[in-house]
Amino acid sequence: MPEITTSRRLDQPLLGRTRFEVDPEWFARLSEKIARFLGTGRFLAIQTVVVIVWIILNLTAWIGSWDPYPFILLNLVFSTQAAYAAPLILLAQNRQDDRDRVSLEEDRARAERTKADTEYLARELAALRIAVGEVATRDYLRGELDKLCDRLGAPEPATERARGRGRTAAREAGG
């Protein structure tokens, strides 16, 4: 028996060979396109025209009556269409549910981040209000210095005395 002299080994796969690869999502995308088309008025109009032409051609027997009056073949076509349309529509709905679920999870995460940011800002604002409430203002310091000067019996500086009198007079006039 003659020996086969090929350079190819049958126990090892070919390296340079291209494989037929299929995108796993192509059928799902196709089914979504079909499901979207099935739900349009255009599809209903086309189907209505086809059914009317089918019935007219079969009743007048112009081409030969391939589907006589009870239109059993037309019913078979509708049944086949329904048998394929229902799973395609369900597949499209499942994909939409998956997209909605992902969108909902992203919305929840965004809402949690927004809530955390809002709570953080509220705490920071409260801390700033407390800190500002504890800060000594210029008027407070002047009043305390005036009280201290009165206790010590020291005369007020001339410029401060004029400001103090103006403030005192304004306070007395205002109430």
TrEMBL record:
<dbReference type="Pfam" id="PF06210">
    <property type="entry name" value="DUF1003"/>
</dbReference>
<keyword id="KW-0472">Membrane</keyword>
<keyword id="KW-1133">Transmembrane helix</keyword>
<feature type="transmembrane region" description="Helical">
    <location>
        <begin position="69"/>
        <end position="91"/>
    </location>
</feature>
<dbReference type="InterPro" id="IPR010406">
    <property type="entry name" value="DUF1003"/>
</dbReference>
<feature type="region of interest" description="Disordered">
    <location>
        <begin position="156"/>
        <end position="175"/>
    </location>
</feature>
<feature type="transmembrane region" description="Helical">
    <location>
        <begin position="43"/>
        <end position="63"/>
    </location>
</feature>
<keyword id="KW-0812">Transmembrane</keyword>
<protein>
    <submittedName>
        <fullName>Putative membrane protein</fullName>
    </submittedName>
</protein>
